[in-house]
């Protein structure tokens, strides 16, 4: 029987996952991955990795369960309320104001690793509230992406249990959700602002000219160098002075730090530095 401290040879498993699901496990943190596979082995009563590989090949359900614990989908509306408060009361209105002054009437945001949609809808609500106060004619576009197509499907429906909504302030609950039996559905107005699609963060970024990216509690599972690649992609996707928000326990390190200014350390809010134009220099 495998022990929780065993170091597994995961090469065959990684190959199987890549060929069946297209997910590159070598980019996830090796120690965490090892622990999660050991957990699935214990849950399925597999004595060693070969036995577990046998199950993974024969039982489609097991592949889904493994992917679920490797990618972990835990999320909530307005997760880390103070982050949304800071954005809504300060950084987002200021950016909208700057853009309006420059004749740009659109605000584009991306929830990267959005799980079942709560973060993307929270961003849309927060931006909508900020826009109403500052520049009501500003058009809002929010993109939500996740590697899991299942999660994106749930997100698109916009239907959530009462428990998921009950902790939200009343004006948000009443303004952006309508009752549907025992559940609540995001209003069609808000849903029309948010587009979901499955996307792997290890692929090229599908968006450009963004004003805000939130990527929280996703890269914590990635190897360091992979994290840097993903952040470099975010940098290319943002407008000058656009905002990047990481998870509270995540941080940017090394040369990437020169590309952004950490404007609010407590909330991990970064602003893209204005790029100097060297094209006219001799
Ligand atoms: C813990 S959830 C975070 C949800 C939300 N950002 C939040 O903080 O509440 C992590 C999400 O990252 C997604 N994920 C993991 N690896 C990914 C990848 N390579 N590309 C895109 N999404 C990924 C998972 O499917 C999962 O839904």
Describe the structure.
44% of the residues lie in helices and 20% in strands. It has 282 residues and is α/β, with parallel strands linked by helices. A seven-stranded mixed sheet has the order 6-2-1-7-8-10-9. Strand 1, helix 6 and strand 2 (139-146) form a beta-alpha-beta unit. Helix 3 crosses helix 4. The protein is globular and about 65 Å long. It starts with 10 loop residues before the first helix and ends in a 10-residue tail after the last strand. The model has no long low-confidence stretch (mean pLDDT 93). S-adenosylmethionine (SAM) binds at residues 71-75, 79, 113-115, 119, 146-148, 151, 200-202, 216-218. The site of S-adenosylmethionine has 20 residues, from loops.
Beta-strand share of residues: 15-25%
Mean pLDDT equals 93
**Quick one: biggest sheet?**
7 strands, mixed
End-to-end gap:
68 Å
Q: What is the level-2 CATH architecture name of the largest domain?
A: 3-Layer(aba) Sandwich
Number of DSSP strands? 10
Can you tell me the CATH superfamily of the largest domain? Vaccinia Virus protein VP39
Q: How many helical stretches?
A: 11
Query: What's the CATH topology label of the largest domain?
Result: Rossmann fold
Strand order of the largest sheet: 6-2-1-7-8-10-9
Bound molecules: S-adenosylmethionine
Can you write the helix and strand succession as a string? Answer: HHHHHEHEHEHHEEHEEHEEE
How many structural domains?
2
What is the gyration radius calculated from CA atoms? 21 Å
Instruction: Based on Cα principal axes, name the global outline.
Output: globular
The portion of residues assigned to helices is 40-55%
